[in-house]
Amino acid sequence: MKYLIFGNGYIGNKFKNAFSDAEITETDIGNIDAVRLILEEKKPDIVINCAGRTGRPNIDWCEDHKEETLYSNVTGPFILAKACFEKSVFMAHLGSGCIYQGDNNGNGFSEEDVPDINSMPSFYSLTKFVSEYMLDKFPILQVRLRMPLDSEKSNRNFITKITNYEKVINEPNSMTVIDDLIIATKKLIEKKKTGIYNVTNPGSITHKEILDMYKELVDPDFKYQLIDAKSLKTKAGRSNCILSTKKLEDEGIKLPEIHEAMREVLKHYK
Length: 270
What we know:
Elements: E1 3-6, H1 10-18, E2 22-25, H2 32-42, E3 46-49, H3 60-64, H4 66-87, E4 90-96, H5 123-135, E5 141-145, H6 158-163, E6 167-168, H7 178-190, E7 195-198, H8 207-217, E8 225-226, H9 246-250, H10 258-269
Parallel strand pairs: 1-2, 1-3, 3-4, 4-5, 5-7, 6-8
Helix pairs in contact: 2-4, 4-5, 8-10
């Protein structure tokens, strides 16, 4: 299969490097003429949309740049989807699980759980929910990830981010190891699955557990300070949540448990 990946960023390049027959494009997904042109030129079997705004250096940026965020996270995916439908190209879209708060009474949030839109933690989260909700009405594969991480140092890698903070909160979260994300997404595409799938490593892990593991495996001199989440001073609220991976596992896709996966990632990160 021939893949065309939209979004020349951190995760887009991970997908490109993982697939032998893949090209990446910086085409503006909100420009339908440009999208139509690149689809006609490249003639892909599969489109993977990794384009979107998460903000630099973080999602606080989105609070002050709502128009750009809306364009990239809502308008763009709709236009890309329209162009893919016109060409009968299968589309996979990277969504986000950062639309919930908490652990859903210990059950984790499933793909069917509708988030409380009135308590959406940030404008970024709101745009990801809006696009997901509307795209779910069409035959599109949507994979939700959270706090993506891998073994390469990058300012987009959650491990690099958290170890650069002097003070961190200590909340349990679902997280996604990018290598596992790629494996799961490839299998879902091969099955021609559509709809929403939580693609996180099973279980949850706290910030403290990650940093203690980092200290053990990477830097024994590393120091950090924990603070209460309520004392975190940010423009945008932060999502801390746990997702259920049952739907993914029902497809026969079982990813490594997050503690096990984190330990392996940190060994290579060192």
